[in-house]
Write a structure and sequence with these properties.
Number of domains: 3
CATH architecture of the largest domain: 3-Layer(aba) Sandwich
Shape: elongated
Number of strands: 13
Number of helices: 10
């Protein structure tokens, strides 16, 4: 007799029909254990050791699986083909080994199928593999972050916003990044500057040159550009043909962008914070 573990009880009946009487298909009904909602369930100082807890309903299902394994020749873990499914198989196997419900000589295999059809299930049974430990490690890392972020931040969230749900590992960090970027935008002070360009000619060739220094002193913009680009070459011995002036009102542009960002609610979706910050910091490096 071979014992097959799936997640859904509905799938268990169909798969058992396809596999025949040599197989017994049981359902785990999803996850069989979880981190208890108390301090110390994840311990970073102990190489992120975790304490797991089996709920009452899952304990009964694990008992049924243990009884089925007493006369079994093989254990086949056929939970869903994703990270959570891999984690469920790992949890089931770990609990069974802790309970010593599975003999050492009983082989354990992991099979994957993406469709509940006879051909797909038969094909999957012919290509078993071991549990994908890197995939399980990815699940453990996600679960540890869920616990550490949520368990630390949720009480603060509940105090500030009564009735709120728990804090998430992704939303919390994203909110921090948005707030930090908004603070950078608020601290920025626009500076007005002028760019002077001239069209010059030499040996019959016309080119455009920009003011780099005056009376031996570099302009503020030139100093910034030199730091970024390593210097700007100067053309000498050229005949001035005509020149014109360009004024770039960076201060006005910055004010317009700031007003758009604050007054238009959808600006946060259409124009995220970092491009706004880069636009406002057009002439100075912006930390990422």
């Amino acid at each position: 007799m071979k014992v097959v573990i799936v997640e859904s009880p509905a799938k268990a009946k169909t798969i058992n029909k396809y596999l025949g009487s040599d197989y017994e298909v049981l359902a785990s009904f999803g996850h069989v254990r979880d981190l208890p909602a108390k301090d110390g369930s994840v311990r970073p100082d102990e190489d992120f050791a975790m304490s797991w807890e089996v709920d009452t309903a899952s304990r009964k299902r694990l008992t049924d699986i243990s009884k089925a394994l007493k006369g079994a020749d093989e254990l086949i873990l056929a939970t869903d083909p994703d990270r959570e499914g891999e984690a469920i198989s790992w949890h089931v196997l770990d609990v069974l080994r802790q309970k010593k419900a599975i003999k050492k000589d009983v082989p354990v295999r992991r099979v994957l199928f993406n469709a509940i059809t006879k051909s797909a299930i038969t094909e999957a049974m012919q290509h078993p593999r071991d549990i994908d430990q890197p995939l399980v490690d990815a699940y453990l890392a996600r679960r540890a972050l869920d616990y550490l972020v949520g368990f630390t931040l949720s009480p603060i969230l509940w105090r500030k916003l009564p009735g709120s749900r728990s804090a998430g590992r992704v939303q919390s960090v994203a909110l921090r990044l948005v707030c930090d970027r908004e603070a950078e935008i608020e601290k920025f002070r626009p500076e007005e500057y002028w760019s002077v360009a001239a069209k010059l000619s030499q040996a019959g060739k016309t080119f455009e040159a920009r003011l780099y220094s005056a009376d031996g002193k570099k302009t503020d913009k030139a100093r910034r550009q030199e730091r970024r680009r390593g210097g700007i070459p100067q053309n000498r011995h050229c005949q001035r043909q005509f020149c014109h002036f360009q004024c770039r009102e960076k201060a006005h542009q910055a004010q317009s962008l700031r007003a758009f960002y604050h007054l238009e609610p959808s600006a946060g979706r259409i124009l995220p914070a970092w491009p706004v910050a880069l636009a406002l910091h057009a002439d100075r490096p912006t930390p990422l």
